[in-house]
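User: I'm curious whether this sequence folds into something compact or stays loose and floppy. Could you predict its structure so I can see for myself?
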Amino acid sequence: MPRNSRNNSGARVSVINVNCGAAEEKENQKSYIECMPPEIMLHIFGWLDPQSLCTATMVCKRWNDIVKENESLWKQHCEAMKDVCQKEVDADIQNDYSWKATLWRNYRKHQVKRAWLSGRYSNIDSPSGLPGQSMCPMDAETWGEILEVELKRKNYKQPVNLRV
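Assistant: Here's the prediction. I'll summarize afterward.
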């Protein structure tokens, strides 16, 4: 609310309390979010990437419950990972892991494997050139797939074994 006061020169000025109404506005926003139907929230959550989805679960109990109760949110991300990690996703689902557990078991591996297969690390000459935070443990079969792609990419030819 404006109130009148005098400044040093004696003129009247209006002072507006900037904080006035902020609590009301915050309460209206809270009410709006709380009143939103779960179906709409689920649709919105469907647009989030896995990291943002996890962040959304930390906003409030309601969001956490909506995300936890809907395996479809996690399934779509697992389906997207199948382009690189088909066997891992299929094996986890066969072993009765939830879609959420499957995603978290394979997400980092998917990112690293996709980066290797796309050629991101093709021009690195030594292990010191690899970004440590981007790596994760992978099995021999996965490394075999990556090596096979790298060899095709470089048109690698076996060196001739010359015996002297």
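Summary: The chain has two domains: 20-69, 71-121+135-154. Residues 71-94 form the longest helix (24 residues).
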